[in-house]
Every structure is written in C-alpha cells, then in structure tokens.
Amino acid sequence: MSLCIYLPAYQAEKTLAGVLARIPAQILARPDLRLLVVDDGSRDGTAALATSLARSLPALELHSFPANQGYGAAAAHGLAWARRLGARAAICLHADGQYPPEAIPALLERLESGLDLVQGSRHREGTALRGGMPLYKWAAGHALSALERRVLGLDLTDFHSGLLAFGPRALEVLPESGMSTSFDFDLEAIARCRAADLRIGEIGIPTRYADEESHLRSIPYGWACLRVLRRYLREELA
C-alpha cells in the first residue's frame, strides 16, 4: 500500500518539526512513503523550515501557496497530490501538532481491514476534555455530532477531527475541485463518501489543546457544517 501523508500548514514554524519527528519510525522507514507540506501562504518561517527538514527527510517535499487560501484548499491540494502519485492510502496530518502522528499505524490498519475512510476521534475514548478541549467546544461538538449522526446515518463520535485516512475508493470519489476551502472540508469529505456508500469508521485518539493558534471560528464553522448537511439531504454531494 503506497502511502502519502500531507500536512496542511499555516504559521506552523514552531510546530512542524515536532510533528514530523513524531511520525513512527516504521512509517518513516517505508520505501513507498511520500510526505508533503502544503504551506498555505504562511507569513512566518514555515516554508524555510520545511525546505531545511527535507534535507534529512528525502520523502518530504514542499508546495507553497503565494497567499492564504484556507484549510480546505490546502487539504484538497494534498489529496490531489496523493491521487497523482497513485497512492493507495492518503493521510491528512495537521502541522500544528493537535493530532497525534503516533496514530498513523492504527489508521492504516483500519483502512487495510476494509474501510474506505477512517477518522481519528477525540470523543470515542473520552479524551477530549482531559486533553484540554474547551468545555464550550466539547458541548457544541457533541450537539452537532448528534445531528450529523442522524442526518448521515453514521455511528461516528467526532465528525470534526482533521485526522483522516483515505483509501483508494475515497480518493476516487472526492472531486478534484469544488469542495469547501474552509474547515468544513473534512465534514464535506465524510458526507461525500457517505453519499457514495463508502465504508467509514473511526479510531480513538488522544486530544491535545496547547498553545497553538487556532484559525477556526466556531460560529461560522457551525453554520458551514449545517450547510454541508443540507446539501447532503438535497443529494447535492453525490
């Protein structure tokens, strides 16, 4: 299974090296591994750092946007890159360190068990609050996830985690363009895979909220998620 890991990165100079260093050794040792940092118009030293890290990580390459286009645009670029390389598995790993690179082997194991899309859930094992998730985000996420479970008919506990693993069928179903350029990209990817009747599951992951800067605005994000659900019900995502 050829493996592509792409890292949407915005203002990630302080965290990128640590995230890459935490990718398990058995993953970094794979001869079929390709790594991509998608620098979304960062104004700090993210691009320079990625270029420097590539000297000791031959699998790593950097693609930089001249201006910020949004998380969804960076994620879509990573998926398109994985498709062009003929990946059998593509993993979205955020460069800010919020999601654990240590979970990559478990994500791949679930893909190899027959799933098409696997999400890392911060709620499945109750780690969200222990990991520092603000109470208001925990409560809002639970309420929104309950609605998403009902609309999408999926027994997932966390529709808003950005740690996602895509198998070949998911890579084929998701379009090259036209998806959200913002943080609701992940939910839209899940909804599109559900509309295509793909097999979707999750694994539990630890939660980490630290001092990284969040670029997600909760109220606009919530409305965007509701629009994704409306489009799913109208069969606009098939």
State the end-to-end CA separation. 27 Å
- Secondary-structure content class: alpha/beta
CATH topology: Spore Coat Polysaccharide Biosynthesis Protein SpsA, Chain A
Write down the secondary-structure element order: EHHEHEHEHEHEHHEH
In CATH's first tier, which class applies?
Alpha Beta
Strand content: 15-25%
User: How many structural domains are formed by the residues?
Assistant: 1
Strands ordered across the widest β-sheet:
3-2-1-4-6-5-7
Mean pLDDT: 92
Total helical elements: 9
Question: Would you identify the CATH architecture?
Answer: Alpha-Beta Complex
CATH superfamily: Spore Coat Polysaccharide Biosynthesis Protein SpsA, Chain A
Biggest β-sheet strands, sense, barrel: 7 strands, mixed
Low-confidence stretches: none
Shape: globular
What's the gyration radius in Å? 17 Å
Number of β-strand runs: 7
| Helical percentage | 25-40%
Structural write-up:
It is a single chain. The chain is α/β, with parallel strands linked by helices and 238 residues long. It has one domain (3-233): Spore Coat Polysaccharide Biosynthesis Protein SpsA, Chain A, CATH 3.90.550.10. 39% of the residues lie in helices and 15% in strands. It has helices spanning 16-21, 25-28, 46-53, 71-84, 104-112, 135-152, 168-173, 185-195, 218-233, and strands at residues 3-9, 33-39, 60-64, 89-92, 117-121, 164-166, 200-204. Helix 3 (46-53) links the parallel strand 2 (33-39) and strand 3. Helix 6 (135-152) packs parallel to helix 9 and helix 8 (185-195) packs parallel to helix 9 (218-233). The chain starts with a strand and ends in a 5-residue tail after the last helix. The mean pLDDT is 92.
